[in-house]
Amino acid sequence: QVDLVESGGGLVQPGGSLRLSCVASGRILRIDDMGWYRQAPGTERDLVATTTRNGNTNYADSVKGRFTISRDIAENTVSLQMDSLKPEDTAVYYCHANILAIGATDEYIAFKSWGQGTQVTVSS
After folding, report:
1. Which of 19, 59, 98, 111 has the fewest C-beta atoms under 10 angstroms from its C-beta?
2. Are 121 and 12 contacting, i.e. CB atoms less than 8 angstroms apart?
3. Any residues with CB less than 8 A from the CB of 90 and at least 6 apart, and which?
């Protein structure tokens, strides 16, 4: 079993900053892409930022220049530094990872894993 656990959400005023972190644990062999998505009430889950093993990054246009994704491959962690937050950034933020792991019978399994989500609220 593999778990993704997020932390760092909360309430912040417009213009403020938050840092989200996510750690993956379990019988992990390798994590390929890792990143963050978000979902506001009544909307679909959308990409925020992702990063590959070799450090390539991809950001949603709405967060470019304000959010920065970083990753520690050895520690199986990914973080999202969010600056200049706006009310429209309010959403539940989910960590995501494409994982190669060892299964219950020692087989290799590849799958997409999601965290439980962390609430980010930007409001005065």
Report:
1. 111
2. yes
3. 40, 120, 121, 122, 123
